[in-house]
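re the bet — no i am not wrong, look at it urself. input seq straight from the record:
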Amino acid sequence: MRILALCLVLTFCAAPIIPVTPQEPPKPTLQDLLKTPASQWPTVGWVPEYDFTVQETLKLAPITKLPCSNTFQAIAKAESSFKRESMYMEPAPLFKYSIGLLQLSLSDQKNYRLDCGWVTEEDLKHPIKNLYCGVQILSALEKKNSTLNFYQYGGKYWSVLRKAEYWPGKSQSGYERFKKECK
């Protein structure tokens, strides 16, 4: 009997040890990124989460005529030099601040009938919220101006997308600079 009990104990104790592989942490969702405080994002630069935000927002608000995959990265470089806290007072007749990576304004949410999740100018400095709404603005412009090409409807919002005729006296238009960024 003791031998049988000893055999049973040894059988259970001698079971092979299966190593536990560490599980990858779950990837954040767009909603998670929107909730992440602005203070946790870099003040300058472009991070992979920004690309993810653009891709996920494009699923919600598709844009069919994007000239390249890094369109929003190129716009952000031209508009704010990737500085999420960047602010620019628009001249007359606007007299309002353009803020954040894509240089959006507080009135955009209302003007384009969007829910971007911002209330204050500080909210516009949140890079994920700024990109999330910028994609939606460009999508709304495309839907409203379906017969125009990307640079015509996109240039209605971002000057960097306007062709040379909108930049009198300039040696290189914002459009030409943008095209270089998009290669």
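see?? The radius of gyration is 25 Å. told u. also Strands lie at 87-89, 97-99. so pay up
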